[in-house]
Amino acid sequence: MKIALCIKQVPDTTDIRWTENNTIQREGVESVINPYDLYAMDFALKLKSMVEDSTVTVFTMGPSQAENMLRKALALGCDDAVLISDRKFAGADTYATGLTIASAIRTEIPDFDIVVCGQFAVDGDTAQTGPNIASFLDIPQVTYVKSIVGVEEKALTVKKELEDGVEIVKTTLPALVCVLKQDYEPQRPLIDGIISASKKEIKTLSMDGISLVPEKCGLKGSPTYVSKAFRNVSTHDAQKFKLNLDESVGLLDEKLNSLGVFNNDK
Length: 266
What we know:
Blueprint (H helix, E strand, L loop, with lengths): L1 E5 L2 E3 L19 E3 L1 H16 L4 E7 L5 H10 L3 E5 L9 H15 L5 E5 L10 H9 L3 E11 L3 E8 L2 E8 L2 E5 L11 H8 L4 E3 L39 H14 L8
């Protein structure tokens, strides 16, 4: 089984800086692997362990500093790494990003069986990139995936976790899945893995290498844009109470009445 894993670097800071086009400034900013993508990596590596002769190729789109993140993925057990990097990719929205990553996957492993992504990226929280990749690859997608139920030669069964319950979904392969956070800490690389990863070559793909044109990439290829970017600041003062159930109900009733939520005259 050939598994394509898509991960993203996100700023490791609350002091996010913005470009003149209202996109996040990534170069020169300390970055980490998007938390959801760590669990997507666990998902991909578990799938690899379940199917004989499987390989995981990890992809990321970003500046050259993303190589450090790819080496961590290699240290954790991924087999190959691909950095999709070109200045022409700067300012891409989720549509242009999806097209670029899909083109890289199609170029590097055209006979892939499954694409694995994190459900969200904490710096954008749109959950659009994974579905966009699936659309450009013309394959089915399953989102909000929690775990693997079973795998067959040309099918995968997974458990989805939704707000109102869970679903068991079976999809034909090739397909794309978007993985949720789990209830455990993701694995950490061991020293042997770190040493092995330091010796591996990371392949870099530019715009020309994935057969795209400038009009389809980056800011030029993005049909959407951010009109305004700002940091949300709470103006509410929080209070903490240590109460039993009855006291909590009484306090809540009192607070709601003081706000005029209830009209006791009726």
